[in-house]
Amino acid sequence: MIGVFAGELLSVIPLRRASRPVYTQNSHTLAARNLFSLLVGINDYPIAAHRLTGCRNDALAFKSYLDNRIDSAEFALRTKILFDREATRSNIAREFETHLGKAGPDDVAVFYYSGHGAREKAGEFFAHLEPDGMNETLVCWDSRLEDGMDLADKELSTLVQLAGLNGAHVVMILDCCHSGSGTRSLERDVTHQGYAVRRIEDAANDRSLDSYLLPQQGRGVLGSEELIMPTNRHVALMAAQSFEEAKETHLGGRTRGVFSYSLMEILQNSAADLTYEDLIERSRVLVSRRTFEQRPTLYAPQPEDAKRTFLLGGANGTKPYFTLMHEREHGWVLEGGAVNGLLLGDPVSDPTTLAIFSDDAKVDDLSQATGRVRITDLRPDKAKVLPLGDTELFRGETYKARIISLPVNEIKVYLHGDGHAVGLLRSAMIRNPLATSYLQETRSLEQADYKIVAVRDQYSISRAADGMGDVELIRRDGIDYRPIVEQERGFHAASARKVIENLVHIAKWEQTLAVGNPRTRLTASSIQVELLQPFEDTPIAASGKGYHFSYTHSGGLSALPGFRLKLTNRSSQKLYVSLAYLSSQFEINPFLISQGGTWLDPGASVFALDGEVIEAIVPDALASLGIKQTTEIFKIFMSTTAFQLGSVELPGLGLPKPVSRTLSAPTHQLDQLIQEHGTRSAFQASGTGRIDDWNAFSASIVVERK
Length: 706
What we know:
The protein is α+β, with helices and mostly antiparallel strands. The strands form eight sheets. Strands 3-2-4-8-11-14 form a six-stranded mixed sheet, with helices on both faces. Strands 15-16-21-20-19-22 form a six-stranded antiparallel beta barrel. Strands 29, 31, 32, 33, 36 and 37 form a six-stranded mixed sheet that branches. α1 packs parallel to α4. It is globular. The model is unreliable at 4-31, 181-192, 216-230, 468-476 and 660-690 (pLDDT under 50).
């Protein structure tokens, strides 16, 4: 298993320029649950050429939403507004501490910004965080005055730490260009009349490290001042990607930011509670209808926070559906594509089909579905669909779409053991809509990929070729097996249902592992994968089969091997790159790169987890089963267009529990799985129009515990 370095970097660190707030969990005495908001809108910059029109309107509209839609019985609203000359760099920083910093563990702290953004050179100490060598910044009212400075994204990280110091749920909403890492400008585009691109010139000054609002402590590399930034939990909704421009235009009778207006429209018109993922997906569609080359983005350092309900903070779990909306240029499209595991299939004989649900329906009940659609065209980030039968879709409406048929090579499953228990498994497979797409029962153990063994009042999932080598069990139960995930006790409908759900989970994991594009000009050599020493820029050598780390358990935690993972674009074109971790316990974490992915120019690099040290360990629970070696996998995705990998996220499955027999100790090699099933889900490219190119490949790391 792979784990992020968990030393002092993840604890609260004293700040260099802003003193620690006096509010702590113990001193937090506000009686009600509070929603602290800091709203900033800057129109009247001191330089006439920089002035904007719609930023105050955006901030006031968000205040109106809070006043009218937030339940006063649940939250006490505590709002602070900074307009124009009030919104200086020092005032904004101070209000993070003295206002948002009051938020306690049950509260919400919201920072809303509407104004200019810009970019500035990032010093060498930030080179590992910025592939293009530039910081993204917010332009405060006084930023372009003499001796003024922008508020850099690194400083926002520090301020977020202040706002969340007492455990509050922190939310950032940034309506500015380059906000996906923030600028608005007043340049008029002659092709798209009526829009103002909110961009301001980049800051010209080269800043020293001492000029930043930063933690006092960081971990250096090679004795340099390279820093690892604090990654306190928060959710950021941003108007555009880091290289794009946010726009304002005339909407709803006044000048508004396109992103802010679209966001408010979604929130005002939705009858259901929306997650941050829902909000950003829907805002992308509305923004694409109203403007051009602007794609709202979402960032959450802890991926599960993206699935929380907007502002309310409740966790909704993994989203089992795709969002379906109508786009001006493409018609009805799903917010998910080839990189998310969707397949085109044969449009007549074996298409991918999805059940359609209204916006407020629950997708776990197929009887609530209002129709079906099939995929007709596939891109890396989107899938075009066509309604089936008498299905009616209405423009302006948003739907949920759940897969009911996927043209994959099903995983073959062999069932063995107690007749009643096996019958329960077959019934559970029939009742699980996804099982019919991902699983197929086989009566031949030799043809099986996995087997489910039902003996001794316990269900166990194992690979068909794995065994314990226990002669007594083979003679007594007629089959050799080794559990790979936590067993389910008892033979009843609930335990059988859970076993089938776990096997579908494993099938999804395998499908993501096998994702690739056979019709591509992008190869694995397009992105170079390097593992570097924890605190040196020295590459770690790989063997013929990949990277191999070993350690002695008696050495303690300090003996654990560690590394930093670096990706470099070695192609001749700009590529969007994302990185996912596929663990030996069937977890998929697609958020190893900030914001889920980044654009890399030719020759540019990005570090996983912003350069933090990654540790490798074989858990005690596996070692107790005789498993002393695991293979962990990193999956690299690259594309000529931006995409989101969030829908492939899976939590890890429970570790198997020790059994009452002595186990042998074969290796637990997942790279063998790659060799055996590497072409399980080859994608078909669409035959119409220009197809954005994409591909994916895997890098494996073997971890051995001696």
